[in-house]
Amino acid sequence: MQRTRALDSFEGPKAAYEFAREVIAELTEKSFVESKQHTYDVMDIYGVRTEEAGWYLKLCIDEDVSEVTVVSLHPLERSIKTRGGVVKP
Predict the structure, then answer these.
(1) How many domains does the chain have?
(2) What is the helix, strand, coil percentage profile of the chain, to 5?
(3) What is the pTM of this model?
């Protein structure tokens, strides 16, 4: 994760990475919003609700090397519609 809104939402990189791992481990199809083609990769977008807030998660899965890259992870700025319903900030 880059020093952007993702890392700025946490006390430090370690807390951000731990939170990202927890969120990804709990993902279900209900959290899925859509897939978008970017320059080189397809990005999957999710809306996730934690106890504190709604979160926006964009990630890329590289199946060739079994790697997940978190492109964006930050609190929602506005509501987002997922397969399981609307997730609010």
Answers:
(1) 1
(2) 20, 45, 35
(3) 0.86
